């Protein structure tokens, strides 16, 4: 790997200049809030589709995929979360307010802001 490319991925931090610090990522991750309905889908075999805002994904895979990531731009998000059955009937239809939190290795600057919304087995929708 060329040295310039290696420097694009990491820079020393937390080591006080003696070369003993660990590497910090230099490339920021994508900011977003991930909506996940795996706990609900596991408890309710009729659940077939997860929608968050205008984005939808099937829940038929076992286990269901990673969910939907809604872009986060710094302000709290109001996200409508809908889980439907195969016939299109809504099993869960809730709107939740979600924010993202700083994600970074200790001693490094933020590499992303991430949040999570989970549809629990009982149908409650929680942001964390």
Question: What topology emerges from the helices and strands here?
Answer:
Layout: H1 3-9, E1 10-13, E2 22-25, E3 32-36, H2 38-43, E4 47-52, E5 55-58, E6 68-71, E7 77-85, E8 90-98, E9 101-103, E10 112-119, E11 125-127
Parallel strand pairs: 3-10
Antiparallel strand pairs: 1-2, 3-6, 4-5, 4-7, 7-8, 9-10, 10-11
Based on the model shown, name its key terms.
128 residues, mainly beta, 5-stranded mixed beta sheet, 4-stranded antiparallel beta sheet, 2 helices, 10% helix, 46% strand
Helix proportion range: 10-25%
Distance separating the two termini? 38 Å
Quaternary class: single chain
Hey, roughly how much beta strand do the residues contain? over 45%
Based on DSSP secondary structure assignment, what is the total number of beta strands? 11
Shape: elongated
Round the mean pLDDT to the nearest integer and report it.
Answer: 78
Low-confidence stretches: 1-20
Q: Tally the helices: what do you get?
A: 2
How would a textbook summarize the main sheet? 5 strands, mixed
Report on this structure:
This protein is mostly beta strands. The chain contains two helices and eleven strands; from the N terminus they run αβββαββββββββ. It has helices at residues 3-9, 38-43; strands at residues 10-13, 22-25, 32-36, 47-52, 55-58, 68-71, 77-85, 90-98, 101-103, 112-119, 125-127. The strands form three sheets. Strands 3, 6, 9, 10 and 11 form a five-stranded mixed β-sheet that branches. Strands 5-4-7-8 form a four-stranded antiparallel β-sheet, with no helix packed on it. A hairpin with a 4-residue loop joins strand 7 (77-85) and strand 8. The longest helix is centred in the first third of the chain and has 7 residues, at 3-9. The chain is elongated. Mean pLDDT is 78; it is low at 1-20.
């Amino acid at each position: 790997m060329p040295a310039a490319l290696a420097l694009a991925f990491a820079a020393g931090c937390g080591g006080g200049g003696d070369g003993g610090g660990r590497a910090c990522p230099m490339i920021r991750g994508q900011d977003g809030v991930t909506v996940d309905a795996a706990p609900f889908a596991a408890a309710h075999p009729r659940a077939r589709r997860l929608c968050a805002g205008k984005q939808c994904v099937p829940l038929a895979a076992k286990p269901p995929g990673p969910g939907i990531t809604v872009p986060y731009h710094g302000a709290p998000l109001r996200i409508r979360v809908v889980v439907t059955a195969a016939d299109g009937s809504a099993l869960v239809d809730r709107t939740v307010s979600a924010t993202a939190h700083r994600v970074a290795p200790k001693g490094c600057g933020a590499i992303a802001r991430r949040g999570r919304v989970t549809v629990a087995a009982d149908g409650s929708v929680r942001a964390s």
